[in-house]
Each structure stands twice: as C-alpha cells, then as structure tokens.
Amino acid sequence: MTASPPKRRRADAERNIASITDAALEALASDPDASMAEIARRAGVVRATIYMHFPTRESLLDAVMEKATAQVARAIREAEPEVGEPVEALQRVIRATWKELSQFHGVLAINIGRLPAKELRRRHLPMTTQFIPLLERGQADGAFRSDVSAEWLIAVIRAIVHLASTELQAGRLSQADVERTMLTTALSAVGSQ
Amino acid sequence: MTASPPKRRRADAERNIASITDAALEALASDPDASMAEIARRAGVVRATIYMHFPTRESLLDAVMEKATAQVARAIREAEPEVGEPVEALQRVIRATWKELSQFHGVLAINIGRLPAKELRRRHLPMTTQFIPLLERGQADGAFRSDVSAEWLIAVIRAIVHLASTELQAGRLSQADVERTMLTTALSAVGSQ
DNA sequence: TTGACATTGGACACTGTTGTCTGATTTATT
DNA sequence: AATAAATCAGACAACAGTGTCCAATGTCAA
C-alpha cells in the first residue's frame, strides 16, 4: 500500500515525500489554508520539489488525509474494539485514539466543504467501520442506547472528542480534566439508561 | 442598538445595508470563503457599494456575525430559559433555537480560526450567558451532572446541535428523526442519572 | 425642484497563490 | 567514476481577490 510495485524512487525522494506530508500535516493543523510555499518552507524544501511528487495542491491534501486517517485507523485497531465488555472496549478505544485524533483535529476537518458529503463519508470509512461492530454489540446487549442508529452514535463520539481537543487547546479545559471529562460525557451520551 | 444616534442614512442606503448583510449570511453559509463579488451579486448590488458601508471584508464579517448571534440570542431569550423545571426548560430552549442555529450552522463557524479564542468567546457571550443560569440551576437540583463545568455542558450541547444540523443536511438523518435524536442525545449527555 | 446623498460600471494597482519551466547543482545508485 | 535521479534557485504566466478611484447616473428628502 505504501510503494511496492508502481515505481522505485530514490532514497532521498522517499525521504522528502515523508518530510512534505509531515510538514503539510503540521501546517494544515494550524491553518487549513496554508499555502504550498508555507508547507515547503516547513519541509525544508523548495516549492517546486513538492510538485515533483504531487501534481496539484489537491493531490497533496488527498495524500495527507489518507495518511492521517490511516494512522488513526491503526490506533483504533490496536485498541482491539472487538474485545471485552462494550463499555470497557469503547472506553479503551476512545482513550487510545484520543491523542492521535487530537493531532489531526483541524486537519481532518479540512475535507468538510472540500469534498461532497458522500466522498467524505467514504474516506472516513477506515475509522468508522471499526466502531460499528462495537456499538452494535453494545446496543444488542443493552449497554448503549438503541433508539438511534450506530452511525449517529459514532458521529456524537467523534464530535465530543473533537470538542475536547478544542477546549483543551483553548485552555478552557485542563490537561488533568480533559480525558475524564471527554470519556464520561461520551459514555453518558451513548449509554442506554 | 440598531442606528439611533451615530448618523442618519438615507432610506435606500439602509435598505442596501440589510440586503448586503442578508446576502453575506446566505453566501457564507454555503461557502465560508465567499468573495465580496459573490456577496455583491447576491445582494443585487455592485461591489463598490459594499465598501460604501463596510470599509473592509473583515468589518462585513464582523457585522454579519453580530447579526447572527443577536438573532440566535433573541430566540434563546424568547424561550425563557429561567422558567420551569431545568430539564423541561433546556428542552424548550434547545428546540426553540435549533432551527435558528441551523441556518447559521456554517456561518458561526467562520470565526474559528479567524479570531483568537478569547475574542471568539467574548462574541459568543450573548448566546452562552443565557445558558449558564439554566445549567447551574439544573446542576444544583441534581437534574444535570455537576462533575463537569457548566461551560463544558454548553459546549457539548452546541456541538450536538451543530452535528444534528450537519447530519440532516447530509441526509444521514431524516427530518422526522432529527429533533428527537438531537434532544435525547443532548439531555442524555447533560443529565446526571 | 433642487441639492445632497447614493449607486453604478468600469478601471486600476496590489497582493498572494498556483502551476510550469529551465539550467545549474547536488545526491543516490551501480 | 559514471550515470541517472532529484533538488535548487529563480523566473514566469495566469488567475482570483481586495481595496481604491472616478465620472455619470439615479434616488431620496425638504
């Protein structure tokens, strides 16, 4: 999935591609409209170099998004959503992905408005699909409310995690409180009682 | 607060100002980066006319934001947050403001990134201050959870309302379901049980 | 009706961004 | 050491947006 059959690039090219996507990730996190020049500057590379590897700005954004979602998806997977009590599992998954997601907080939001809703949903699939079985399992055994769809619950959880990230960044929530607050709120919103 | 002492404008000027802010509201809702030209086109006015009344793009945005927040604030006030049982009152307030807020859904989000967090908070005051007493009242009598701040609860409610608006717009939630879903989720997130 | 106010339509300079190109230079690979 | 790949430095055209200006025209108010 990384670069096996298509073409063999030189080692420094490979390195630069990594630098560029990393820099883009950073830059876009603080400013969703960061220019190619700004990204190049951060990557320690000349602007034209970016165009060596990414034909357009759009294509760079696509690559960055895919990298971010893949990284979050991996973190979710490693938290083993299918193991144990639904409530415990959800708690574990949220906790494990929270730091990951908070990095990309702004970055993943770029797609909103940039892509049609359908496409956006498709690209979030690597993350969302992993939640579905967990939530449905919880709904089946009465741990989570089942008067709304699992998709809605996912959206609510995501919103709360993003919110926690925002509030932390804004200083309205302390490092010490944020995790507990986020978790209890998410569980309370999703819980059945 | 509208235009009492500062200076008397001609009637057509007054009318155009209204057209412009309305057009800006519309345009910015669908595209947060809508240009002055696009706004002028919608207002049925030439671009230079906008600059007659708003010296810069920024100042127009400010005016639009203030208009939007004022409108939402009024709707909240009319729902009488201070009357009756906290749970009932909150339900009433959310329901009453929901349609209002869903119009401005995207518009109010423009400020994020445009303004420093502190300033942003200040401008949201007309809306948020009205929630505080209601939430604190509910926290005091055990209706709402009190292990987190009232400010956090406000943020959570706002996030859920915005989310509902997004999901409705994306067709992931039906007109019939959206209000119930939003309300039950918000109350469940805020409730103490 | 008249004079002041306001809008029009068009032009203008300025800035920032994207994407392309080129020739010189550096770097990895064999 | 030789060759191919990649980067650099800088220029360029094209475009879109902001803010300003002006002369002509339209509109309100007394």
Radius of gyration of chain A: 19 Å
What is the beta-strand fraction of chain A? Answer: under 5%
Largest sheet of chain A: none
- The secondary-structure class of chain A comes to mainly alpha
Beginning-to-end CA distance, first to last residue of chain A: 43 Å
What is the overall silhouette of chain A?
elongated
What's the SSE pattern of chain A? HHHHHHHHH
Unreliable runs of chain A, pLDDT <50, ≥5 residues? 1-5
**SS summary, helix count of chain A:** 9
Number of strands of chain A: 0
Rounded mean pLDDT score of chain A: 92
Describe this structure in words.
Two copies of one chain form a homodimer. With 193 residues, chain A is mostly helical. In chain A, 73% of the residues lie in helices and 0% in strands. Chain A contains nine helices and no strands. The longest helix of chain A has 24 residues. The first copy, chain A, is elongated and about 55 Å long. At the A-B interface, α8 and α9 of A face α8 and α9 of B.
Chart the SSEs and their pairings.
The structure is a homodimer of 193-residue chains.
Chain A: H1 11-30, H2 36-43, H3 47-53, H4 57-78, H5 86-104, H6 111-114, H7 117-140, H8 150-169, H9 175-190
Helix pairs in contact in A: 1-2, 1-4, 4-5, 4-7, 5-7, 5-8, 7-8, 8-9
The structure holds a DNA duplex (30 and 30 nucleotides).
